[in-house]
Amino acid sequence: MFWDFIVLSMASFVCSIQLCLYRNFSVFFLKKGLQTPVSVLPCETVKVVWPMGAETIFFYVQGKKDKKGLFACALFGAKLPAYRETAQKRGYIMKMIYQVEDRPKFGAMVMFAIQQLLAIMAATLVVPMIVGNGMSSAAALFGAGVGTLVYILFTRKKSPVFLGSSFAFIEPMAAAFAGGVSMSLGYLGLILGAVFAGLVYVGIALLVKFVGVDWLNKLMPVVVIGPTVAIIGLSLAGNAIGDLTSGGVKVDGVSAAEPLVALVCGLVTLTVTMLCSSYGKRTAKLIPFILGILAGYGTALVITIFGNIADADMLKVLDFSAFAALTKDGVSIKTFFEIPDFTFFTAKDGFGELNASYIASIAVAYIPVAFVVFAEHIADHKNISSIIERDLLKEPGLDKTLLGDGIGSMVGALFGGCPNTTYGESVGCVAITRNASIATIISAAAGAILISFLSPFIAFVNSIPPCVMGGVCMALYGFIAVSGLKMIQKVDLNKNKNLFVVSVILIAGIGGLTLTLGKVKITSIAAALILGILTNLILKNAPEEV
Question: Which residue from 255, 308, 343, 432 lies 20 to 30 Å from 189 (Cα-Cα)?
């Protein structure tokens, strides 16, 4: 602190002398043998970005003016704690290297866009793979890119968040296929479900614009939303464990690989993911799931090669048929580029089988989950607002972010089948890289759209065995569950009314309570949310406990 003060004093003295001469001047900041020259005009503020190893230090140099004329220079920086608070109050310091309206140079922007893509890609591609039924990961990635562009349009280029496939809708998406009499109707159900979910967002956006949000906070307070978000992750735990012991090669619909062998591949994936996230450097911390998948895939590849050499089915984990299909009819343009299998291609044949009971089932499956995801929407935007030091719920406004998210989900599902949501991974990438440039998000969205047409990449994704994805999903589903539990940290569970609400939701959700009303099936998440709301309404006026 003493030496920081000396640096401040010397720089201010030099600036004072030169400013009095009404000339441009240069200030040199010396530390550890490094020097950074900065040219400053009178009454001009200049930001100095000073790399120091793995850390970047920010300084702000400002020409001052008082009644006697130009006479001083103020230096504020990230390494000057005593002056940083004052500088922030005066608006001199931005935590971001690139703020929302900034546009990095082309080369840097490409790298930043790739970084955003790596952060969101694993989770975005996982959802269609989990749901199965022939859903295309390439189409989901395309839908995420298009949905993000729609979101940016509605938020008037003020909210730097990427939209990706939502895990919360995995169960409703599975219900769409289960309730459909054909694959075409199932795909049509995906689009209808996304429309229902999107309309929930549009409806809430209109209410927020004209009425405010008090009514929503009363209907679904944290004590209701928190445990409901938790059961979204917990209800999928069985899927993760089932995949963890299953290989990609199937014989009569059953995994040929020994469950223990598949388990090893899955645990390698999980272990590498955990190590990269906990001990990795900046890049590794940004893409732990990508690195985990690559490690698990590599392990499965080595084991499968030995299995092919020894002709042992128990060691055959990887299915190479996706790569073989690239050259099935010889090498052609489709070997490298191919239009993704968009959802509407198959869905258009399902209109003839559509009926009222199926539509009602889709509505009941999707709408309650949309209310839950709405809570995540608010949490994500409060988080990114604190990072970029701009309240996005006021400007562009919660109604605009909801419209962008809702319409973006509809458009994204039309192509990829998966409703989209704002991604915490994208928010984390903004925070870690200190890059909030909306141009970066637009570039990442464009990159997602372009990559979805690359056949080799899609073949690789389709060849990832279930056990590897199971290892990733153990962490992903756990994160969803924990994020819900974190919401209720500040809820007083010593009060019986709160304890009952949380208990009812958790047990109903984890226990798999479902309701069938005629041909309409209410999923466990929807049933748990409804019971939680009713319990909270019944007990909200309970007397305070002594």
Answer: 255
How many CA atoms lie within 13 Å of 373's alpha carbon, on the beta-carbon side?
A: 28
HSE, side-chain direction, 13 A CA sphere, residue 359: 8
pTM comes to 0.63
391-398: which pairs have CB atoms within 8 A and are 24 or more residues apart?
392/155, 392/158, 392/159, 395/158, 396/155, 396/156, 396/158, 396/159, 397/209, 398/205, 398/208, 398/213
At 29 the three-state DSSP class reads strand
User: Structure tokens of 513?
Assistant: 């309570």
Distance CA 532, CA 255 (A): 39
Beta partners for 52? 55
Q: How far is Cα 512 from Cα 500, in angstroms, rounded to an integer?
A: 18
| Helix spans in 48-155 (H) | 81-89, 106-131, 137-154
Closest Cα to residue 377, out of 172, 233, 510, 229? 229
CA-closest candidate to residue 450, choices 112, 130, 152, 113? 113
Return d(Cα 503, Cα 485) in angstroms, integer. Answer: 12
Q: Which residue bears the tokens 């992903």?
A: 476
Per-domain residue ranges for the chain? 2-89, 106-484
Amino acid at 242: G
Residues 281, 301: Cα–Cα separation, whole Å: 26
Task: Report mean pLDDT in 10-residue bins for the chain, 546 residues.
Answer: 44 39 34 36 41 41 40 37 40 60 83 77 79 86 94 92 86 86 89 93 88 74 83 82 88 84 94 87 71 91 92 89 83 86 88 89 87 74 74 84 92 91 74 80 93 86 85 81 80 89 92 74 78 91 73
Q: How far apart are CA 378 and CA 369, in angstroms?
A: 15
